[in-house]
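Hello Y.,

Per our agreement to keep a running log of every chain we model this quarter, I'm adding this entry. I've kept the format consistent with earlier entries: sequence first, then predicted structure.
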Amino acid sequence: MRSIALLREVFAYHAALADFAFVMQGLGSGPIALAGAEGLKEEVSRAGGERDAIAAFALSEPDAGSDVQAMSTTARRAGGGWTLNGTKTWISNGGIAHFYVVFAKADEGITAFVVDAADLDASERIEIMALT
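Predicted structure for the entry above:
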């Protein structure tokens, strides 16, 4: 924890945006670290170390905000995988991430899915006031 605190202090002093992206990385990879399958944990850890992969966190929706009960994004089994259908907004690290942790309602309940950035459209931007 001390190392992380010192790293964040250096980031924040020199480049607040770098500190922000670092913190959001934890938000995106946190669900995997807490509840991901062992193979997925290893894959994400390796990707972060070998190719500096950035994680994104996709929970909020235009009509639901972060209220997971009001979420309308769905996940359905399709063959050997899943089909996700819905729209997310306010995605932490959106547009710069290599993979997204996307939350959706499945028959099993609210579930998080790891989606490669190439498999979704994160091109729409919301103008906000941000750290520079």
